[in-house]
Design goal:
By secondary structure, the protein is an alpha+beta fold. The protein has two domains: 8-133, Alpha-Beta Complex (Nucleoside Triphosphate Pyrophosphohydrolase); 167-295, Nucleoside Triphosphate Pyrophosphohydrolase (Alpha-Beta Complex). The chain has six helices and 15 strands. It has helices at 24-32, 106-109, 115-133, 207-219, 269-273, 285-295, and strands at residues 35-38, 44-49, 54-56, 69-76, 79-85, 101-105, 145-147, 152-154, 161-162, 167-175, 180-186, 197-200, 223-234, 239-248, 261-268. The longest helix has 19 residues, at 115-133. The chain is globular, with a radius of gyration of 22 Å. The structure holds zinc ion. Zinc ion is lined by residues 137, 139-140, 142, 155, 157-158, 160.
Length: 297
């Protein structure tokens, strides 16, 4: 069982070329002919739309001379791609951008970008977010230096190396083997907005263990037939969403924990199709999992 469509943020067409990250000579030469994504402090980038949908507005390295941190994203057809973070290097973003460009964040444009642009922007957003949130050594607190073209930070005091974080989170549709599934409403969500259950994987835990624990904690159900569906990076700030489906085992009575959910209940396919709930946006893996399940019944 797999998702029928690749989730919007899981698309990617560039070669990450990880072996280049430590090749200073190559990186310096590649920068001269690179295409560059400028990522602003708040995570936005310049997007242009010439009528065929949004495209990332790549710069040439000397166009604006951003002095900030350089991140090597990868290559395609011999062309190197970098991101720069002007805010991190003391430089400021140019106040005006060429006509027709807008500064937008990943959530606003991801679904409409082509596979190549989507993959680069997800990677750049995830890396930029890590640098913004982890400037210091986790051991001693010293400000770390950036090495390996943005893929490692090293502590100048104790020499420890630190890598970008990806935090696994499980997200699961629980069904009854027939026509009903469990949807919950988060405490901060508006009335009518529901989604499937989700939670972070804990240290020492398997993915299946996390699915079973989260379902038990949030709605008091036991589940079986846990099956993996697919994954999607979700760099807000650093999650990797791992999608599952599971069937309730035994008593289907929901006992909702007030810790995370305002409410949860069983919904039939007919209710969801009839618009009884407002689902998560189509860019989310939750939307893909729910619509696949709807179409399977
Ligand atoms: Zn240190």
């Amino acid at each position: 069982m797999r998702l029928r469509e690749v989730p919007a943020l899981s698309r990617s067409e560039h070669d990450r070329s990880a072996h280049r990250r430590t090749d200073e000579g190559w990186l310096a030469e590649a920068w001269q002919r690179a295409r560059v994504l400028v990522i602003a402090e708040e995570g936005t980038t310049a997007v242009t739309d010439t009528g065929t949908g949004p495209r990332l507005a790549y710069r040439s390295p000397d166009a604006e001379g951003p002095a900030g941190l350089r991140l090597f994203l990868g290559e395609r057809d011999g062309t190197p791609y970098f991101a720069t973070l002007p805010g991190s290097g003391g430089a400021t973003l140019p106040g005006a951008v060429p006509g027709g460009e807008r500064w937008l964040g990943l959530p606003a444009v991801a679904a409409d970008l082509d596979d190549f642009d989507a993959g680069l922007l997800v990677t750049a957003t995830a890396l930029a977010g890590w640098h913004a949130r982890h400037p210091r050594c986790a051991r001693c607190g010293a400000v770390t230096e950036v090495i390996h073209a943005g893929w490692t930070r090293r502590c100048p005091d104790d020499g420890s190396e630190h890598w970008p974080r990806t935090d696994p989170a499980v997200i699961m549709l629980v069904h009854d083997g027939a026509d009903n599934c469990v949807l919950g409403r988060g405490k901060s969500w508006p009335e009518g907005r529901y989604s499937i259950l989700a939670g972070f994987v804990e240290p020492g835990e398997s993915l299946e263990g996390a699915v079973a624990r989260e379902v038990a904690e949030e709605v008091g159900l036991r589940v079986t037939d846990i099956a993996y569906l697919g994954s999607q990076p979700w760099p807000f700030p650093a999650s990797l969403m791992l999608g599952f489906i599971a069937r309730v085992d035994g008593d289907p009575t929901l006992r909702v924990s007030g810790d995370e959910l305002a409410e949860a209940r069983w919904f039939s396919r007919a209710e969801i199709r009839a618009g009884a709930v407002r689902l998560a946006p189509s860019v989310s893996i939750a939307f893909r999992i729910i619509t696949d399940w709807l179409d399977a019944g």
